[in-house]
Design goal:
Layout lengths: L1 H10 L6 H11 L1 H11 L8 H27 L1
Helix pairs in contact: 2-3, 2-4, 3-4
């Protein structure tokens, strides 16, 4: 998605919305979103996009920690 948006930004055509990029990051994982930003050097300095992406990463980390704790509790 980040690559597609970067190409379209350079061409001056229709863009992928930030909301769509953040939704895909939320649904598909923030690791891929961070990788896409780094590979395509796209939206790396945009605020509040960066803040929202960081918040999504924190939410994923908390959810993973809670899920891991619940799994461990169920194993005991």
């Amino acid at each position: 998605m980040f690559g597609l948006d970067k190409i379209r930004a350079e061409a001056g055509t229709w863009r992928v919305s930030e909301g769509t990029l953040l939704t895909w990051a939320f649904l598909g994982g923030t690791i891929g979103a961070y990788a896409g930003r780094a590979i395509f050097r796209h939206k790396t300095r945009k605020q509040p996009f960066s803040s929202h992406l960081h918040q999504t990463a924190i939410l994923h980390a908390v959810a993973a920690a809670l899920a891991g704790g619940w799994m461990l509790a169920g194993a005991l």
